[in-house]
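Fold these two proteins, one after the other.
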Amino acid sequence: MSPNLNAFVPAAGVGERLRPITLHTPKPLLPVLGKPLLSRTLDRLSALGVDRIGLNLFYKPDAIVSWVKTSPYREHACFFPEDTLLGTGGALKNAEPFLRGSVFIVHNPDILTDIDLEALVQAHRSSGNIVTLALHDCPAFNKVAVDCAGRVVGVGDVVLAPGTARILAFTGIAVYDPDFLDLFPRGVSNVVDAWLDAIRAGRAVACVDVTGRLWHDIGTPASYAAALVDTLRRDGEWIYAARDVQGRHIELDGYVVLEDRCTLGDAAALRNCIVLPDTPVAAGARFENAIVGKGFHVALDEPEFLGHRVTGHGIPIGVGGSGRRYYRFRKAGGTVVRMVCPPDEADYERHMAYSRFFARHQVPVPALLHHEPDARRAEFEDLGDLSLYNYLRFPRTADEVEALYRLVLTRVISLHVDASRQVQECELLATRLFDFDYFRWETAYFLERFVEGLCNRSPADRDALNRDFDRLARQADALPKSIIHRDFQSQNIMIARGVPRFIDYQGARMGPAAYDIAAVLWDPYYRLDDAMRERLLAHYTGLRADRETEAFSTPAFLDALLICRLQRHMQALGAYGFLSTVRGKLHFRKYIPEGLRLLRQDVAEAGGAYPAIAELVAAL
């Protein structure tokens, strides 16, 4: 970014619509997953290389000044106190000596956005505009009429007229030439009036259309909650817990944000909740669809909290990587989950058949309540939103973690042993083998989607690598086969009323049980303590040995584990590459470092058994 750019952040507002939250915290300091809104705004402006940042002050000014003076921006900030609120235009006029020297950008602090600020400034500098507004199509706020050339022709209660291309909404971000300040009177004024004055004077007030970019206006408790939920969802998360949050036997479900220094009494229960900083939650307290502060809480209904419209199917849920969509809706006094598949969903019939088969043999999956094959829809028992992965996002004691994993391993025996003995009842499953071809598909997927697709690397010796992949696949195919989940990781294990239940099992196959154990105990989503993993592995092998006596060999199973770990971790990295580059789900990239660490560990433990794989992994 070129030099001579200042910034202005309107930070004076009272935030009346956000009360009672803003009775305690000024709106610019509202936290979003551990960072105040103001911090996120200043981070974005700092990335532009601005020279100085001005902030006007009126409501709770001491809190804002105190925060800025302990921030990385203290050397660049200038404050402009207002005895009475001067309005959006008067605030700029009050800071005129500061703003007069250069082009300046104004960025409201009460929005969450990823609008490209550098592109906006560059568009302004190359345009000759006196003002360049960042506008987008947001029907709830559309009030700015623009013509086909992108020039603003009206603001307010406007309707499409000849020459008007569309009506858009102001995002709260704009770039101004300093002579725009001449249009303001002294005292209270509105920046919109100055836009219209500029247009009447023949000056160009134009826009950059940023429709489609992330944007949340945080003006009410509901919009605040929805913005935090969307921030979590875009990162593939359900729960944020600040590092200093503690509590025992805490029940969490849905989207939960636990900000700095909040305290949770034992056995507190939260579902779809935001707990603000310094807030104590009493032992045994229960909150749902609420923003909880010190001495108050704001109750919302579930669609408000989630920022979702209720569709014909219900409230959308889920953040996974598949094309299936899931919805929660009320039915007969409770809630059920509706799965809606795309028309070309190949696994739909298999999913239905597996659900019925597993239920007959006490495999802990959600009950299938109703299905419509022609519409590719089905309704299932609602297990809530607490996966094992989400459970572990809250700091748990080692004893709590180990006890839950023991339950998971105990219950997967019903799949690996009990249902496997009766697999001929389900032909779709009995004939679906995890065989040589499928193992080779996994390693080819790893090579195509991760090594070449994401890392942009090529193997030094492709023939040697394929020989290693072939040998690994033959070894995996030769292992004893039982029913396996095939994607038995922490996000596919739900914790419903303290009991593990399995979802996303339509990919189940006849394969080595060690593959599932590799997936759950060496999971890139959550790193287990090595000593705990060894105890859990002993628990599982002990259960298998007790149930199968002479049919199960612990040493053979442990040998199989290394083969399955290599396969599983290459498959997982291939999936992360595909989901992030093809599906655009960038949050899967955050699991790559742990996936690579585990794969390197696998290769090291294999010694020189797979030299070409080892060479490839070392180069990543």
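Now the second one:
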Amino acid sequence: MANRLVLILLLVTPLAAQNQTEIRFRSLPDQVRMRQYMERLAARPHHIGSEYDRDNAEWILARFKEWGWDAKIETFHVLFPTPKERIVELIAPVKFTAKLLEPAIANDPSSTQQSEQLPSYNAYSADGDVTAPLVYVNYGIPADYEKLESLGISVKGCIVIARYGASWRGIKPKLAAEKGAVGCIIYSDPRDDGYYQGIVYPDGPYRNENGVQRGSVMDMPLRAGDPLTPFIGATKDAKRVTKEQSGLLTKIPVLPVSYSDAQPLLSALEGPVAPDNWRGALGITYRVGPGPAKVHLKLAFNWDVIPIHDVIATMRGREFPDEWIIRGNHHDAWVNGAEDPTSGMVALLEEARSIGTLVKEGWKPKRTLVYCAWDGEEQGLLGSTEWAEAHADELKAKAVLYINTDSNGRGFFGAAGSHTLEPFINGVAKDITDPETGLSAWKRVQLRRISEARTAEERSEVRSSENLKIGALGSGSDYTVFLQHLGVSALNLGYGGEDGGGIYHSIYDDVRWYTTFSDTNMAYGCALAQTAGTAVLRIADAEVLPYDFRSFASTVGTYVDELKKLLKSMQDEIRERNKQLDEGVYAAIADPREVSVAPKREDVPPHVNFAPLENAVDELKAMSEAFHKALDAAKKEGSLNATKRTELNRMMRMAERDLTHPSGLPRRPWFRHLVYAPGFYTGYGVKTLPGVREAIEQKDWKEAEAEIARAAGVLEKLAGQLEIAGNNVK
């Protein structure tokens, strides 16, 4: 077989050879093997620091070596708190003590491994022992506190209870502390992922009354990674700050609970009836408080520095060994983690095995492939961040692209990432067969978007567009350090949308749940391996890296338009409210049981000069068009010699770096990308042109003008590089 593949590759054109390689690759991923990998990796709880987490790393290492990769484990030492005391009790007007326990289920064997399971908690919560009145704050996001203020309710000196959803969990205690609360409880409401959505586990996929969502509440909008080693890899001998100096720990104690533990707390509240959109699906009248419910919350943690284990496997490139295509998925979990992260990890493993098979048959990548199984993702992207910080100089010089996966499921293909790669990943998706429909993965998504379009104009645009729009990346998985700290182009890929559930970060995320209610036969795991692997092969062997700067320039133009609309809507809203106040108009709220405080007069936001950004986008669009026109002509004429290709690929590899600024974003210098970042008060959710957008949202007009100038500067820098590159390829 090896001689046959080599002969085929010698007899056909480079494009045909690439197609043959990809077709052969896509025939190799095996659903049965993926099921076997999942059963092995998710057989026992494997949080960081556990014996099975280390055992899994060793097993993954052995598989890479078996498949022909040069593989090793890199160890880092990170802060990892585990609970030694957890108490939540209602002490007035009645007594109730939360059980804080997810019970085993008879027909789910993994759920019985209680001696190995981490208890339900939020990592990097502060220690604390507080007793205070309770206030319900809905999702605990900025808009909810604005509503509380309009109701005349303060959370100062109180414990807040917020439901999961609408933002990343760490924003809830962060905002609560800023508003003066002394503690925070987060619960899963059945409206969001429980019985309101469907049948609950074990009979269905949704969260049962005892399910609890664990998770980190480290202040990751400030920076990711080990709290004690900012900006440097957490090697054993690294210089460490104290946990107080890190600035990433919550200021107040915070704990997650199930909805069975939350209901007695919420039932004891009085005060105004909660607004309509604050009401969940529990069989109670949702009220805001404060009181008469009074809660005692006590938390204490072991604060240990422990080793974590990244598995790094390399396949050296035959022509460009110093250009790296990096592919990653994490292997650690909160408990057994069949969906999160094993469903993505098994796809990565099948890619690696299949690539190893290609190499044995005679193929070898032009560029170096680096496959990574990260540890410590769940606590704060620890493994990926520490590895990238430790290798930062090398990555800045060599990294071409980082491709990430995490959880995977059944349904529709999804992609987000650098918009220079939008046409590229669209092209990949067109060559992947959706296992359920037989259509291409791309076509299935297009048809869904057509059906969901709100207007005829939107439907027409989706039908006629050669490429489907991909999302922008905020944070929440291992791409963060690559894109937003180092300026490495990144993609995050996965399938889903037809496998809703409620077992996220609970003991019930296990092989039984996954193979009963999600990707039951690993067909979409196979599709993910084919998709990500095809992307890896295609970019690894590209003569010219397939970045498209026209797509990026167009997308950034829409971001500028969004900022202008945001400012205008703020101006219009404040003008209208001031007009009503001047006229003595006070609109009564719909529910007479609510209490309301009249709004205050506010200055209308001033004019903000967007001209530098608009001019920079116009210049970038013009240079992008000119560059791609020159590049297409050079390809057609065959005038791209090896020297020109090398310099052209270097420019493309560095393009994302050009969009970063060494001083980073205001008040969070670790985040250096000026086009994409997680929001300061959204956590995972992306803010595009973040410095400008958040200055406008915070009504800091001087900072908005300064950030417009900085963002315009990086766009102009990229436009200048494109102009030079376009002239060089002619």
